[in-house]
Amino acid sequence: MDSPDIRMVLVAPSHPGNIGATARAMKNMGLTQLVLVNPREFPHAEASARASGAHDVLAHAASVATLAEALRGCGYVAATTSRERDQYFRVLDVRDAAVRLVAEARRAPAAVVFGAERTGLTNEELEAAHTLIRIPSNPAYASLNLAMSVQLVAYELYRASGACVPASPPQAAPLATTDEMQHLFTHFETVLQEIDFRDRTQSGTHLMARIRRFLQRAELDQNEVHILRGILTAVQNRRRRAGGSLP
Q1: pLDDT tens readout for residues 70-123
Q2: CA pair distance 87, 178, nearest whole angstrom
Q3: Which domains does the chain show, CATH number per domain?
Q4: Per-residue H/E/C for 136-186
């Protein structure tokens, strides 16, 4: 069975032992791509010890400074969370998420993002995700160790890789990458400023966050992003021809 093109991304891991245990869990389930975002201690002897036979995964792990770098070139992105989030995020059970990730990885690289041991992922870090993964657990004690979370997700990915998952239609365009989506968000924000469309809520700070989330839920492909950016550019050009002053 070929390894799916799925990155396991650990954001700000603080314990090197968890990095090693993650590498071991990944190798158990046929995954090879480990990306570390701003790890506190890596390389580290404890990480090597806990890898226990998965030294190749650890040796090829990439260490980057930002989550944006870790997700560069990815299409579908899922993020794990144990906390309740607001209703604007799509949430999938881990088994359903794994099936979707494997299917999407056939078209373009996909990623699963895990947060720091004590704090998890911030809402800002979740903005790059198309969906959140919920791992069912005892409500009285729902907190999972980082390496345990990776093991559970990796297991479901392994199962899904052997399942009969319908392939994506060959004519379908790949999902827009995280970089392409960020360019779209920036373009959108610029145009909103140019046409003086402002957040009318009391706090006046949530408009772009809401726009980001509903566009992420839409799971835009590359062609759709180009269409939206073309529309935004047309709006800008029309204002220029009409003599509108741009900020």
Answers
A1: 999 999 999 998 766 556 789 999 999 999 999 999 999 999 999 999 888 998
A2: 22
A3: 6-161 (3.40.1280.10), 178-241 (1.10.8.590)
A4: CCCHHHCCCCHHHHHHHHHHHHHHHHCCCCCCCCCCCCCECCHHHHHHHHH
Q: Mind listing the pLDDT tens digit for each residue in 173-222?
A: 899 999 999 999 999 999 999 999 988 776 667 889 989 999 999 999 99
pLDDT tens, residue by residue, 159-172: 999 854 554 555 57
Distance separating alpha carbons of residues 217 and 126, to the nearest angstrom: 12
Report, as an integer, the average pLDDT of 143-170: 82
Q: Looking at beta carbons, which pairs linking 231-237 to residues 24 or more positions away fall under 8 Å? A: 232/187, 232/188, 232/191, 233/187, 235/191, 235/195, 236/191, 236/194
- Cβ 17 vs Cβ 50: under 8 Å: yes
State how far the Cα of 30 lies from the Cα of 66, in Å rounded to an integer.
26
Contacts of 110 (CB under 8 A, 6+ apart): 4, 5, 6, 7, 74, 75, 76, 77, 78, 101, 104
pTM higher than the cut 0.85: no
Residue 108 · residue 67 · CB < 8 Å: no
pLDDT in the model for residue 247: 47
DSSP reduced 3-state for 134 = strand
Cα–Cα dist 190/75, whole Å? 24
Q: What is the dihedral of CA 143, 57, 69, 160, to 10 degrees?
A: -60
